[in-house]
Known about the structure:
CATH topology: 10 Kd Chaperonin, Protein Cpn10, Chain O
CATH class: Mainly Beta
Number of domains: 1
Structural class: mainly beta
Largest sheet: 6 strands, antiparallel
Strand order of the largest sheet: 8-9-1-4-7-10
CATH architecture: Roll
CATH superfamily: GroES chaperonin
Distance between the termini: 29 Å
Number of helices: 0
Radius of gyration: 16 Å
Number of strands: 10
Amino acid sequence: MKINPLGDRVVVEPLEERKGGKTKTGIYLPETADKERPEQGKIVAVGPGKLSDEGKRIPMSVKKGDVVLFTKYGPTEVKVDGKEYLIAREEDILAILE
């Protein structure tokens, strides 16, 4: 099954962060420290964009393949064919990571 987002929504594949271990600064983290929702992901599908008050389509600022930083609790979690995705509005995306 394929997900085609509507309006100004995007489908994001969350990036898994390592569980537990040692940080770059030398702090040891238990596995339970990474139980939070991810905040980074790769865009796998992009909607056509939002409609303005005049009825014109406003193009999206992101594209398929972009790695983005998004708000932690903004996106909606969905499961398709056993794989988890997040559906977010463009306004929930904070930055494109390079």
